Structures are given as C-alpha cells and as structure tokens.
Amino acid sequence: xxxxxxxxxxxxxxxxxxxxxxxxxxxxxxxxxxxxxxxxxxxxxxxxxxxxxxxxxxxxxxxxxxxxxxxxxxxxxxxxxxxxxxxxxxxxxxxxxxxxxxxxxxxxxxxxxxxxxxxxxxxxxxxxxxxxxxxxxxxxxxxxxxxxxxxxxxxxxxxxxxxxxxxxxxxxxxxxxxxxxxxxxxxxxxxxxxxxxxxxxxxxxxxxxxxxxxxxxxxxxxxxxxxxxxxxxxxxxxxxxxxxxxxxxxxxxxxxxxxxxxxxxxxxxxxxxxxxxxxxxxxxxxxxxxxxxxxxxxxxxxxxxxxxxxxxxxxxxxxxxxxxxxxxxxxxxxxxxxxxxxxxxxxxxxxx
Amino acid sequence: xxxxxxxxxxxxxxxxxxxxxxxxxxxxxxxxxxxxxxxxxxxxxxxxxxxxxxxxxxxxxxxxxxxxxxxxxxxxxxxxxxxxxxxxxxxxxxxxxxxxxxxxxxxxxxxxxxxxxxxxxxxxxxxxxxxxxxxxxxxxxxxxxxxxxxxxxxxxxxxxxxxxxxxxxxxxxxxxxxxxxxxxxxxxxxxxxxxxxxxxxxxxxxxxxxxxxxxxxxxxxxxxxxxxxxxxxxxxxxxxxxxxxxxxxxxxxxxxxxxxxxxxxxxxxxxxxxxxxxxxxxxxxxxxxxxxxxxxxxxxxxxxxxxxxxxxxxxxxxxxxxxxxxxxxxxxxxxxxxxxxxxxxxxxxxxxxxxxxxxxxxxxxxxxxxxxxxxxxxxxxxxxxxxxxxxxxxxxxxxxxxxxxxxxxxxxxxxxxxxxxxxxxxxxxxxxxxxxxxxxxxxxxxxxxxxxxxxxxxxxxxxxxxxxxxxxxxxxxxxxxxxxxxxxxxxxxxxxxxxxxxxxxxxxxxxxxxxxxxxxxxxxxxxxxxxxxxxxxxx
Lengths: 352, 539
Known about the structure:
The structure holds two protein chains of two kinds.
Chain A: E1 6-15, E2 18-28, E3 34-38, H1 45-53, E4 58-65, E5 68-72, E6 84-87, H2 99-107, H3 119-125, H4 141-154, E7 159-163, H5 171-187, E8 191-196, H6 199-205, E9 208-213, E10 216-221, H7 223-228, H8 233-239, E11 243-251, E12 254-257, E13 261-267, E14 276-281, E15 295-303, E16 307-313, E17 319-325, E18 337-339, E19 344-349
Parallel strand pairs in A: 3-8, 3-9, 6-7, 7-8, 13-19
Antiparallel strand pairs in A: 1-2, 1-4, 4-5, 9-10, 11-12, 11-14, 12-13, 15-16, 15-18, 16-17
Helix pairs in contact in A: 2-4
Chain B: H1 2-5, H2 8-29, H3 38-44, H4 46-78, E1 79-80, H5 84-90, H6 99-110, H7 115-124, H8 138-164, H9 167-175, H10 180-191, H11 193-209, H12 212-216, H13 222-231, H14 236-264, E2 280-281, H15 284-315, H16 317-322, H17 325-357, H18 360-369, H19 377-396, H20 404-408, H21 412-436, H22 440-448, H23 453-482, H24 485-490, H25 498-507, H26 511-538
Parallel strand pairs in B: 1-2
Helix pairs in contact in B: 2-17, 2-18, 2-19, 4-8, 4-11, 4-15, 6-8, 6-15, 6-26, 8-11, 9-10, 11-14, 13-14, 14-19, 15-26, 17-18, 17-21, 17-23, 19-21, 21-23, 23-26, 25-26
C-alpha cells in the first residue's frame, strides 16, 4: 500500500551556491494527480523540478516516489534511472534530429507500458503535423515547446514535470491545448507537476496549487481555496486578484470601512469586535448598482471579453476593482460616477 | 572527498597536462644547470643579435600582415565587384603554402639566373638582367615569405568580425553624418579591433616560432639559435635557455591573443535582430582597383609559389621521377592519421569530462593543456628530447632499461607525442566549440528520457559533432603536413615527409629538387583547405 505517490519532506532545494527554497514539504496523494506550482520568476520553481528529476542534489530532507527514496542527503538516484520526465521551458530538442525523430526518442522509453498513446495522436493534438519533418532550428519557439511536451508525454514517465509548458505557445492554441493536455494526463493517469506563472493556467490544470514566495511554500491547497482563501498577505499580493482595505470589526459578521460603510458576511477566521484588520476585497465581492447612493469615481476600465474590471477611487484614494458582466446594459466612462450596491455582502470574509 | 572524485576524466586530463608540462618545466629547469662554453660566447655576442633579429622580423611581418589581411578582409566584406565571391575563399588558400616553401619560391624566382631572369631572357633575348632584378633575401625575404604565408589569420578573423558586424552599427555612423572614410576609422575598424589583435597575435606567435624560412635565409633568430645550439654544439641546456627567452615573448602574446579572442566573440552575437549587411556595388575603375588588389594578394600569396614550384617540377623532371612519392605520401598519411586519432580521442575525453563533471580543476587543467600551441615546435622537440634523456639517465638506467630512449627519440611514438603537445589546442578547442553549441539541457533531456551518459554520448553527442570531428581532423592534417621543425628533429632515421624532403633539398641548395615535394605538399594542403573553407570562413 503506497502512502503517498510523491512525498517531499522538509527539502531544501539549492541551485548553485545560493539556497533557493527552504524546508519545503508537499505530497501528491494519488497516481494521476496534477499539481501546479506558482511563484514569481527566479524564486526557485525550476530548481524544485530539476531536483525532483535528479538533475540537482538536495541539501536536506528527502523525496520519495512510490515509497522509494529517490533523493536525500545521502541518496541520489541518477536522473536516467528515475523514470521522471522533465519538459524544459526552453527548447531542448536534439538539434540534429527532426521533430518526429525527437518525439520518437521519448516513445522509445517504456515501450511496454500499458499507457497507450500513439505518436500520431500526440502530434495531432499538439498541432505539430505541419512541422514534424522539420529540424528544431526551422520551427518557432512555441512549436519547439510543444514538440518537447510531446516527447515528454510519450516517454510515459511515472512523474511528469512541466516547466512553463505553454509559455511560448500562441494564445489561439493555448486554451485548446490546456483542455486536451488535461484530458490526456487524466486519462493516462500521468502524475504531473506543472510550474507556471499563469495563475489561470494553474487553477485550470491543477487539482492543487502551491504558492512559492520568499523561498518558502506559502500555501498548498486546491485552486478554489488558494484564490478565495489566501492564507497570507504575500499570497494576496502575488495573485493580484484583489486589494486589502482597512476595516474595523464591528460584530460577529460585520465590519466597517470609512469609504464603503458596513460590510457583512461570514468571517473565515474569528476576530474580536473592535479589531483593526485588512479586508481582502476581490473584484467579484462588490456589485454594481446605478441606483445606489454609494458612488465612486471610475479611474480605469479594462475590457476582458466576458467582463469589465472597473477600477474605482474612494474618498481616501483607495483603488478598488469591481467585476461587471460585459453584457451589462451600459458602460461607464473614466471620471464618471459608478454606483455600488448596498448593503455590501461578501460570502466569505478574509482578513489579515 | 577529493579522492572520491578521482575518475577517468581526472586521470586523462591530468595525463594530458603532464605531457604538455614536460617541455615547459624542462625549459625552465635549464636555468638551474650549467651550460657548455658556447653559452658564454653566445651571451656576449649572439644573444642580442638573436633577440634583435627576432623583433625586427616580428615588426615587419606584423605590419605587412596587417595591411594585407585587414585590407583584403575589408574589401571583400563591404564591396561587390567581379570575382568577390571567389576571392572570399581563394584568399585563405595562402594557408596551404608554408613560409619556408614561399621562401624557396621567392629565391628561385629572383635569384641570379632564376625564373625572372629566364622570363626576361625569353621575352627580350640575352642580356645582363641579374643586376636589375631585385633580390628578396635575408630579412626582407623572410618578412615577405612569412607575411604572405600567415596573413590568412588576420584575414579570416577580421573578415568574420566584419561579417557579423551589425548593419545597425554602420547605419548609426550614417545617422551621425559620418563619411564612409570616417565610418571606417571610427566605427568599423575599432569594433573589429579585438579580432585584428587576435589575428596579429597568432601571426606573431607563428613568426617567432618560424624555423624553416629564417634558417633558409640564414637569419639568426632565437629559433635558429635553439636549433643550432642543439644540432651544431650539442648543448641541450643552452638550447633550453634560449627557449626560455623565446617563451617569455610567446606567453605574452598567448595571453594577449586569449584576451582578444574573448572580446572578439562579442561581434558574433549581433546576428539576430539586426539587418543583413548591405554591400556597395562597385563599378568602373573602383571595381577594377578592388579586383586588382585582391588578385595581387591572391597571386603573390598562392599562385606565385605554386606556379614557381610547378615550373621547376616540369623543367627538372628528373627530381620528380627520383622522388619516392608513394613513400612520402604513406609517411605523411601515417602521421596525419595517428596524430588525428590520438588528438581527437583525448580532446573528446577531456571535454566530455569537463562537461559531465563540471569541475573547476578539470577546466584549469584543460586550459593549461592547450598552451602547447604557443610553444614553437623547435622548443617542444628539443625540450622533449632533453626530458627523455634526463629521465633515461636518472631513472631508466637505474632499472637497467636501455631501450627507453629509443622508444621516444627518433620514433613515430615520440613524434606523435610532440605533435600532440603542439596541436592539442586545435583538437581541444574544436571539440569544445562543438560542445558549446549543444546546450547542456540537451544532455539533461537525454538523461530524463532514460539514456545513460554513455548512450547520450553515442546517440546525441557523436552524431551532432561528426562534422566538427571531420573538420578538426582536416585542420590537424593541414598543420601536420606543413609542420617542419618537430618532424625534422623527432622523425625516425630515414623517415621523410614532403616537408622534410623539401627542406633537406633546399638546405643543400638544391631548390629545383625541393620543388616537387613542395608542390605536392601545397596541393594536398589546398585540397584540405578547400574542403573546409566554408567552416574556416564561418568561424
């Protein structure tokens, strides 16, 4: 009986002379689970993947895959013996082989494995048909990235590590590939760790997301919780999907802000009455209402296709984002007044 | 901890460094030994002459090489005129003509009753032409011979720098209102300076190492001094002391060349994001002048010695018939083949070791190992013999092993070992630059696909580097075919190559007999150069 499919226990990851990520612990419970690691550039996400793959040694702690220690202070299994595949962010195709030969390099491994996935199938879903006979220097970086992904998928690894797998892929293909990639990984039960800086990609692909900030894993939870219940100010700031405004706790389910007035809802964490807190206000927390007497000035309006995000300025110069459906009957221009529905009710109140 | 790290990479890199260290240590240790009486005479009479002549030769060659090399590189890079594409590669054929063969041709053509005399006689009938034909011998002859044989280094590196020079840079000059002349002196030339300095440093090192042409023209330089101290006075310690002086000069140049080369690489990075260079179409007399300049350089550097040697081979067929071409060819091929295999094999081990172990010590050993190319062949050979004799006297005789000396001196093994020291940088740098093109993450991708280090080497590295290996093999071959002093000193008794045969005839004043082996040498080297010209011009 396998405890956890992958177990990372108190590992300090190091790249070069600089210690990057300290005492990281996380686990992937089941085979076929997909998790995503999010964090700013240069924080050490790639180092984590490289260390799991065996390309870097770890400082302390241990990494076990299927109950077998693959890295610890004293044990280091060579990368070629781990059956872990890493798809690099940059083009790492073998320059003297064409795309199909490169992909077949991956297929040559684990031929007997039951996970059935044909070369043609992968080439088709990753839109590589038109470049399959070309050499790496003849294709675009996005195509090279997809070819590298195809090679990794076909190697049928126990654990697949994807480092910014779609960062160079055209926006037009991106969503389609995300959908198909998730489908294939789920169907074939390929356990995967994806590193990305795109939170939407992480929220879609991962069943769990880890946020790495300041050399530490700050939060490791399912995407909904990471978004709606960030556990620290740093995570809020990193996700950048809301702002923190000052407020005073006025009751079991209410608080007061100088500009917005009374805000009601369910506290995630208990705060004593009279406490000064920072309230997380996300774009979907406030509702637009033209008839409301709470009017704020529009300073910016972003059209996002399905919605608008209005940025409103309060009397105390706070900038608040508000989500409005793009089919809303009329639009508000910059400098116009914008009504906020009162009373303000937020389903879950997150404060710090 | 250190001993845990010792593996095949350390052992082989250490072995290579040890072999390269032998001549350097031998030369330096000569200062702690007594020399024969000749050293006293030399110190008070000839040493300054050696140094002065070496410096004079150096300055003359540098000046001429700069003018020819930079001038021709500029013309073929920035202008379009009839024949420009031909001259781009034809100018590197000068590499096929060693300076000593150039010296033979120069003398053969201009000497009294030489080829020039015959031409004038055939054109204008009998006459006293000898007095009006200029004589290019002595120092002037050596400067011309060496310059036309070596200017290719300056040409190739400067042309590459011009080639990769960004068009944006040139357009910047136009925007600043610079004239074409001002752009050349303010922008084009300064930005190519590291490449020019690198080229001139190579020319300088080769000039100071030159033995064949200076000895032919009877100029006393440090190189001929070393050879004479050993051959004529049988004073190995003195030869090594002279080598010490020469090495000081050369190491200075070696450092300069290395620093310049690093800077010279910056220019090749402007490929992406910059426009392709626009060349100026020349017409009328300007086109004629550009063509004439390039043709004269090509004619003097290549056609002239080839035609001179061909002419003598034809009019003195007896020497050609007497020449045992098959034997010379087999000997040359044997040396080329053995040396290339050994050099490439060890260069691979060392570079692959560096790649997989990422050890700073290994990298330092490799850097040291390539310093052999800076040491003149004469010094290497003499120092190697000194070391083997010392080792034999102090160790082997103690164990009553008497054959040791003959294994290394006057043997193919000894010859290949000294070639190894001299040309290891060529092989190592070639493999290294091939490896630099393979991103390390390519290796990592291979490991992650389940391929071991050995399989990565055989399935990824070898197929990718096969062109580099071929190129390095050919470059080594060109150098070995032309090499003279090492072959002359280290070769087994009665073992001749085209180079040694030509030298022996020339040193006996039988220039007409030296023509045929010289011609064969040039033809073989030219074929190799033509095969690799695309790569030579690229990098």
